[in-house]
Amino acid sequence: MKPSTLRRGMNFWPPYFFAGIRVTYIAEDWRRVDVELRQRRLNMNYVGVHFGGSIFSMTDPFFMLMAMNILPRDYTVWDKAAFIDFKKPGKGTLRASFRVTDTMIEEIEAATPNEGDVVRPVWSVVVEDGEGDIVAKVDKTLHIRRKADNRSRIGARK
To answer: What does the pLDDT look like over 18-30, one tens digit per residue?
Structure first.
C-alpha cells in the first residue's frame, strides 16, 4: 500500500478520527511518520488534560507498520509489548515523530541471518507538546522473525 493511501485511511479510521489523532506525514520510504493528537472533549480526562490512552494510541502501530514496509517480504513483524512513561500532563496539540534508521534495519538483518531467527528490538518515540516539552516517552518492542522458505520444502516430504 502506498504511504499516502494509508495516511488518508488512518485519518478516517474511527478510533483515530474520534480520538483526534491525525497522521500528518508518512515518508515514501516508510522511514518517517509524523502523528498529532489534538485536544478535544472526547480525549480529555477528569482534570482537563489528554487521556493517557489517547496518547498511547497515537503511538501504537507505527513502528510495526514501518518495519513491515521497509524489511523484505521474508520477515514477519508484530507488536510485542509497549511501555509508556508519562513525563508531564499533555495539553493542546501533541506530536510524535517516528524514525527508522539504516542502522536499526541493519541490526535486525544481522540478528536474523537464518529462517526462523527472531529478534525483539525496542524502539522509542517521544510525544511532545506545542512548546516542545516531552509529555511521554513510549518504548515499543517488536517481534521480528525471518520466515521459513516454504519453496525449499516442496517435494521434501515422503
So the answer is: 889 999 999 999 9
